[in-house]
Amino acid sequence: MGEPAIRVEGLRFSYGSLEALRGISFEVAPGEILGFLGPNGAGKSTTIKILTGQLAPGSGRAEVLGRAVAPDDPVLQARIGVCFEEKNLYDAMSGRENLRFFGRLFGIRDLDADGLLAKVGLAERGRDPVSKYSKGMRQRLMMARALVNTPQVLFLDEPTDGLDPVSSRAIRTLIRGEVERGAAVLLTTHDMFEADELSDRVAFINEGRIHAIDTPENLKLQHGRRAVKVRYRQSGSVTEESVPLDAPDAGERLRAAAGHPGLMTIHTEEATLESIFVEITGRALAG
Amino acid sequence: MSRPVSRWAVVGAIVRKDLLEYGRDRLWVLLTVLVLVVVITLFWVLPAGVEGSVHLGVAGLPDPGEALGGEGLVVVPFASTDELRRVVAGEAEAWLTPAGALVRDPGASEPPPPGAERVSISLGIAFPEGFPEVSEPGRATVYVDAGVPEEMTGALAGLVREVGYRAADVPLPVQVPDGLYVVLGEDRGGEEPSAREGFRPLFVFMTLMMELFAMASLIAKEIHERTVVAVLVTPATVGDVLAAKGIAGAASGFVQAVILLAAINSLSANPGLLLCLLALGALLVAGTAMLAGSSGRDFMSTLFWGMLFMVPLLVPALAALFPGTAAAWVRLLPSYPLVRGLVEVQSSGAGWADTLPELGLLAAWAAGLFGAGWLVLRRRVRSA
């Protein structure tokens, strides 16, 4: 594996007496998506603020593309893209004007704003002022803005928040496209399905500490149960039975369940990322 | 990857964006145009000259024009005290002829003599018979119309005493204490500035004030809506953002002030010096806009902070309306050298050398306020 796009080691940060980050460490490789999962106040936004140069790091090491991060570093900021959770767009300007303005900040005079707008499904509304956009349209424009400079590292803070399922799928496809191009992505989300579907690895962060970091599959294997839940109707009532896959008679019991005349459903009892998060941190994600 | 971007390109992009946003804000565009139109119209409606002449009727004094005439005072000799009394009381009308006042009944049918000018006499002095040859002057009577203010009556009484002393060749025992007043521009000792001249600095300030509010509002909005954060995660630095705000604010204020002066035909006297004064004034106002914009959170709070900063700056421009009435502390206000410079150049024809102290002081104030605005806004942007 080559040089990581993001490298964080023992990073600490405090807002006065409040310790927001308590020595977190992780890496994101080029072409990889790391899902950053944690409840509000866990330290996700502080980490992104430090890595994008909005906050000066406290102690520890934080590097993006081999450069120590610091506020006001135009060289580094020319190579990253950020999609904020808040919809901080210029309302009086059109979607096209917003993109062109940000293009000029990156030194791009001939930005294909229409192409970018088409990518996020806003081709028809590019000339309208952003004040007339719906929440979902604003979110898509935020995503397009993050891609203006074809960044090598993308920081995405709740990129599908407030979007309808179709738009969310389009954004996820767009993110995958960026990763295929070789971009590294640090993604924060509350949507467990999204994290599971998109992330190559996920990091569970709570109270300024990373509690676990691994692929979703590994986490599920480590923390979930290898079992199958069988539901069937018998003597007028519904019966539910859990069949551990590691049990010696597992094959025989599954065959019996499959041949049962009242069989209704068979489900795997795979753990969800949310349940694993609660198990590891003792705290719900929504909190 | 995108090409490396120069600082000037970044600052230029932000300035263009700021001006575009300003142009899209209907409220500020409307107010800016409205203020310019109102101010320019007002200027041309105001009288260009000084209407300072007062007609004073005099009876019982031989050759009264020589004894009493002066700047702004037209002496109208009357043949008798009774005629003077009737005219001041409105019972008769007076026509000025080379020979003196011709008194006629209000409803007289015969036409006035050719060349005669109808005059309104609301003040009159009737000297005692035989004055000034008599060894002991008797009582002089002052006739005033009911609408004449009390101060004017007092002044006339003083004038009578002065004539008495002059006739007796005795110097007047009158002293005017000095050092109490600040006179903006040249103290022209009675040569009153016209209303247009007096209002000119105030009009310039009104356009700059609009700019202050508009710029402060845009800055507050950018911070409050956190669009500035989106800008700061690009190659744009905090310094670029602040420089762009300063340039956009100062440039729009400067351009509007220049448009105003051009429209009221006031750029002809030493235009280079005037432009320099306006540029420094616009910089001063841009710094103030940064302070107000950093303090405000919404339209109303920005308006409040803008007023708080702007009202003291307006005082010297208001004082210029009434030369000689401003207190000494007005000299300490940052906008004083700007107003004084404008008055000196436009009303007294002062040049670069004459206004060097004002230019220096204004540059120092502009740098100070711009610096303060920069520091406060930088802190605010960093914490956005």
Give the low-pLDDT segments of chain B: 170-190
CATH H-tier superfamily of the largest domain in chain A: P-loop containing nucleotide triphosphate hydrolases
Count up the domains of chain B.
Answer: 2
| Low-pLDDT residue spans of chain A | none
Mean of all residue-level pLDDT scores of chain B: 81
Structural class of chain B: alpha/beta
Residue share in β-strands of chain B: 5-15%
Shape annotation of chain B: elongated
* Number of DSSP helical runs of chain B: 12
CATH architecture of the largest domain in chain A: 3-Layer(aba) Sandwich
User: SSE order of chain B in H/E notation?
Assistant: HHEHEHEEEEEHHHHHHHH
**What level of helicity do the residues of chain A show?**
25-40%
* Biggest interface found: A-B, 33 and 32 residues
Biggest sheet, spatial arrangement of strands of chain A: 6-7-8-3-9-10
End-to-end gap of chain B:
29 Å
Number of strands of chain B: 7
Helix content of chain B: 55-70%
Total domain units of chain A? 2
- Write down the overall mean pLDDT of chain A: 90
The gyration radius over C-alpha positions of chain A equals: 22 Å
Q: Globular, elongated, flat, extended or rod-shaped: what is the shape of chain A?
A: globular
